[in-house]
Predict the structure of Carboxypeptidase-like regulatory domain-containing protein.
Amino acid sequence: MKKLLLFLFTSAIGFSQSIYKGNVSEKGAPIPGATICVLNTKNCTTSDFEGNYAIEVKKGDQLQISFVGMKTQVIKISNQTFQEDELIVNEIVSNDYIKKLEKTADSVKISKPTGYFNFNLGAYLGYDEISKINRKSDGLYELKYKYDYDRLSFEINQEYLISAPIRLPKYQSSYAQGRSINGDLAYQSPETNEIFSWGPNVNALQYSSNSSEYYPQGNIENRTSFGSAPLQLYNPNRFFRNSEDSKIAFTGQIESRKGNFLKLNFSYKTGNITIPNTRNNESTTSLKYFRTVSQYSKIETLLTYNNFENNFSNSNFGINKVVFANAITPVHFDTKSASVLSNGTQRSYSGFENNPYYLTEFNLDRNKSQTFSFNFNHKFNKNRISNTVNTNFQSSDVKNENGQSFYTAGISEPNFNQRVEKFKSFSVSDVFKHDFGYSKYVESKLDLRYQNRDLERNFFNRYNSLNDFPKNALMQTTFDISQNRFEALFNVNGSILIEDVPFYYNEMILKASTDLNYSSTVKNGLMPGYFVSVELRKLFDEDFTLTITNRYTQTEPSLQNNNLNFNSLHYSLDQFKQLQNNLELITPKNAVTINENSTNFDLNYRISGSWNLYLNYNFKKVDNLYVPLYDSNAVSWSPNVDYKQRGVEFSIENLGYYHRNFRYSFNLNFTYYKNEVTAILNNQSRIPFAGFADINKNYIVGQPLGVIVGSSYLRDANQNIIIDADGFPIKNLEPKILGNPNPDFVVGFSNTFQYKQFSLYLGFDWSQGGKLWNGTQQTLSYYGKSELTGEQRNITNYIFDGVTQSGAVNTKAVSFYDANQSVGQNRWTRYGIEGISEDAIEDATYFRLNSLKLSYKHNHNYTSNKTEFTISFFMNNVFVAAKSKSAFALNSMFNSLDTSGLDYFNAPMMRSFGSSLTIKF
């Protein structure tokens, strides 16, 4: 039987009057709306949403506490009351309530000392149909009726999402394929293999009467009459299409009065990305069974199967290559009309470049995976002793295929790569806990794990004919490796409560934990660790908590690592079309542990039960961070970096403002952190870990994690740019630190408005500072495709600010594009496709409304035909304001956090619109 308890404590004591703060709760679950009055006076108040209240009293007063459906209780204020920081008063219960609870054993499960009702408790307890009161994981209490048991219940969820690309690059639309020849801007046809768009104005060209496979509407020639039709122009951004994602999920469940249930889940999701000819499908099925074996024992099993298939996985940089090919194509060339010529070769504006539709049509980047898992859990709980035994098995098969087919521009020969990975893991764990009361316990954990990974990669190249592609190659190289790991993890932890320390009415909670782990693949086998914390509650007679923690852990890296970040590091930007994902990072047999020591100081202050203030300072030091190291086109996985990090987090949370049917809550979060590399081992001056050979993110001693390193302008001792004899800045051949991609601080602000069954959510985020490299715009300028080159290519008599090589002030005037000189001498092509990386560094600051969601929820609980439905409409990336016009700090290059701050023909940022409908019956 559950008891309704009143928790009373004194916050301030005066000579005649005192302010009492109390809480009306049901074994820790708050009762909002209870009435508290000083007997025979008009001095009354009500408990708030969390059951808290405050009222002015004096010695001898009697407090009357009442709630609908409950027996009224009267408490007398005495000297003893002032000496107790928590007074447990006799329960206030009704006979109706007792009768409902007697029907089932221990029917109300309270796991946390918080919660709230979505119903008037007193109004419903008189109904015989009520069998149980449930507390959900989010703290919400709900009534369970007789007809909720021994019957099938269903839930169907449908989601639909459509996304449109935003913040796309802007292109010049005035100049055609070609270059300067003999002082004139000359159009160059696709047969010339011209890659540049540095030709004449498109208005000076026309279609001829002779057509070709490149131009079915007529070949392009110089305009002979002003009456001829202008060239048809194509915006590269029309290549992208809206992506669509659709998901349907079904859940069926049957539950008995004893709490046993069987639950079946099935979901199917299908969609595409913004690149044409893409599709992904995913299905997940799970079966869960929960059974109460006895009063003290319960078992739970979960069986899950997942199947995923993607026909364009970007496992070989395919998406970035497609975006690149589309962006550099001249404005007058229609890539969509055809991608293959009659002779079977690729139809592109240049034999040195690719048609994006050809790359999607002959794409080889595919991914398939299947995962099966089984989990068994046995829980025993009697009195103050609990024990949980868990077993888990998982098996995964992952198959990746990628390559570059015949007639793909920029590669020396076609190739194909097939990667098959099989992963199995099995674990058994036991958790024993002895609870001695409030915040007093001892717990032990033992976890035994086994992992097995088999990896096989086959590389195919050199073919006699197209018919032999992709697997009937003259040369096949196989990489085959099997890895095993056995781990034993043991932990002992405990907590103890000390009252009235360091001040009266305070609580001190001490926690400690020690680890001793063994791994068959780590050097010396053993990995010790510990955790200690001191938590001081109710400081200064307020709901104020100070927590200090320190943790030390030793871990080892995963058995393998394969991603695009380090595979691209041994390619320069002018080799972009040749990129291949053909390197694996394999953890060595006797791996060195990664050591981490972290300290946290947390302050938490709760005001009036509805405001929560949180402040955290943290310091972390990491030794032996694993990084990729290159040597002779091979890469190793090595623990070579130490770093430290400190940060501050502050948040303000309003748990809810209520007025009749309206509720408002918000959360404001501020995060600031700084990190620094403290050491690099093995005599390395810097270690690149993401990007390209000539522009990358690095670990450098004394610098933040991931500083961007690339080319810059040559400067003298006074930091003046040095100008060459032609009047243009000189490129510095030594790489230089160009910027820190880490933001100065990040702010998040979320708001929730609720009115009756309607709710509206708005989420904002603001990231201040940090740098990013916009290589996309830099390369577009090299090809003559960027909007900047369209606006500035005719600038003449420009004098760059700097000094000559002799130290004199530069006075040499230049033209950005002089037709009397070769195209390689203009402002943007003279430095090569990589340009000067310093020019592409931009401020990463942004502000956005990242999420907007409107929902309506309706439920009907008054008959045996219980139904509930929720419909939502949402929008992501609603509004974005950023210093960079096209690049975005969170839009990483290969969809990896390691490449954040690098933009080189990334997949576009998307604005999403969607809806979801959930029906329960």
